[in-house]
Amino acid sequence: MRTKKPPKKEFESNKWLIENYDGNPPEGMLEIKASISHSILISRCTKTTFRVVGKANAISLDNCTQVSLVIDSLVSSVDVIKSPKFEMQVLGTLPTIMLDQVDGAALYLSRESLGTEVFTSKCTGVNINLPGQSDDDDYVERALPEQIKSVVRDGVVVSEIVEHAG
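Above: the chain sequence. Below: its structure as tokens.
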């Protein structure tokens, strides 16, 4: 059994390193003030909500469970690896989200981030929540496909989403 390490939040050069948080601090969310040159690594955290204020370069989330992330905007991407029950809300813009080995994710996009590209690998239960037609409307939830069928046609591999009728 691993020894529980103390939580750490430190800034070095242009990188934030945040690790070992278990639960939210008394003030609620754990806030990270970032600028365009900053990258953020969040690892081994549980049941914690992070709020990234400002426009950061990139965020990596690794080996976290039940972590929520609220971000203003990013220049590059959010990478999420081996982090079940992950939630993220984008308030501004975000070009790319990459999910690897994520089981259960809810992504909330803003109107400004509707052009975001989402890449998944070995993921299940990933839903994207899109803003309604007007600001007064509720978000609309859409599931990302989990099953892909690949066949060889005329010497070329063709892959398509498996749709279940029922």
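The mean pLDDT is 93.
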